[in-house]
Specification:
It contains 3 helices and 3 strands; from the N terminus they run βααββα. By secondary structure, it is mainly alpha-helical. It has one domain (about 5-90). Strands 1-3-2 form a 3-stranded antiparallel beta sheet. The chain is elongated. The model has no long low-confidence stretch (mean pLDDT about 90).
C-alpha cells in the first residue's frame, strides 16, 4: 500500500476529500484510510485534516497551530465525556443500569 503523504499537497485549500484519498491510496474504506493516517502520524508525518473531511500537508505554521487547537479541543471534549461516564459507573449500583 502506498503512503498517504505521497498523495497530499500543501495547504488547507488543497485538502483532498477522505473518500477520494482512500481510493487513491488503495484503501477499501475511509476507516481504513484513517487507520493508515494514524500510523503515519505515529511515524512522524504531519498530516492535517480540515473540518470538511479532507487531508493536507501544512503550508505554514499557522495551519499547524490551528490543527493543534482543533485536536486540543476535541481531546478536552473526549476527556469530559470519559469523566462523566466513569462517574456514572462509579455512582451506579448493581442493577441500576439494565441491559448488560
Amino acid at each position: 500500500m502506498k503512503r498517504v503523504v505521497d498523495f497530499l499537497t500543501q495547504g488547507k485549500e488543497n485538502a483532498v476529500p477522505a473518500d477520494r484519498l482512500a481510493a487513491l491510496v488503495g484503501c477499501k474504506s475511509v476507516r481504513e484510510l484513517q487507520e493508515l493516517i494514524a500510523l503515519e502520524r505515529k511515524d512522524g508525518s504531519v498530516i492535517l485534516s480540515a473540518s470538511t473531511g479532507g487531508y493536507y500537508l501544512p503550508s505554514c505554521k499557522q495551519e499547524i497551530r490551528e490543527f493543534i487547537v482543533t485536536l486540543e479541543n476535541r481531546g478536552e471534549n473526549t476527556l469530559a465525556a470519559l469523566k462523566s461516564a466513569k462517574q456514572a459507573l462509579a455512582d451506579s449500583k448493581e442493577g441500576d443500569i439494565d441491559g448488560c
